[in-house]
Write a structure and sequence with these properties.
single chain, Rossmann fold, Helicase, Ruva Protein, domain 3, 2 domains, 7-stranded mixed β-sheet, two-stranded antiparallel sheet, 9 strands, elongated
Amino acid sequence: MNGNTKEIVKKFNIRLTKSLGQNFLTDENIVRKIVDAANVTHNDLVIEVGPGVGSMTRELARRAGRVIAIEIDKYLLPALAENLSEYSNTVVINKDVMKVDLNEMLRAAKEEFMPDTVKVVANLPYYITTPIIMKFLEETPGIDMMVFMVQKEVAMRMTAKPGGKDYGALSVAVQYYSKPERVLEVPPHCFIPQPDVDSTVIRLNVYKDPPVQLENKETFFKTVKAAFGQRRKCLVNALSNSGSFTQSKEEIKEILKSQGIDENERGEKLTIMQFASLSNSFSAKKS
């Protein structure tokens, strides 16, 4: 496959578009390990984002029941069509994934094929990694697992625990919806062109039910965003200065005290459970 991907790029005179963050995997072993990490079987419906010339799509098609590949670049479609010509279980959608109605797409797909499991597997463009992942987590119920290649730094943030420098709003958001784990480190030489950063394969095991109960999900994420909005500020100042709450600084102090949280603590020390309790207190005391 190493030569195959390069040969396809050459054959179709494909010019990789920097603005689309195109870095194609050329290492067959890494491709297999990514698909292995998703534990793909013939009972699965798999969504791939950014298939490129289809190197990983072929491996997914060999193992999955159905594959939906979403590719924004129309100039890659001829190469994809040739590379996937022997697989009738694969469909390519030429759209921007951020503009796709994922629920409608899944509903239509399930009318033709009733999967045991729905999975997302992708080597994501790094400039838009977080919006794509959050779109799937927030807007698409029914997905069981996601396996993504992301920038190593982003993977560290997604899996970070409270108290560390990598822990932030992204950590809490991803861990509210899923249990993330880093699977594999991938060096730059496994891609064409080579990216300037190291990459990590991350697996998100999506929760059927979130690990915390919330009175109001919007208030929860508002609380998290406010707590990390000014990382160097203590919690009471970060929350009261955010403009996100109707409560006064003194009232916020009382809420923190009622939750056993030190007002001088920083947001990065709070667990997802503490954020949930705190946001539930804000919801209960809305004025």
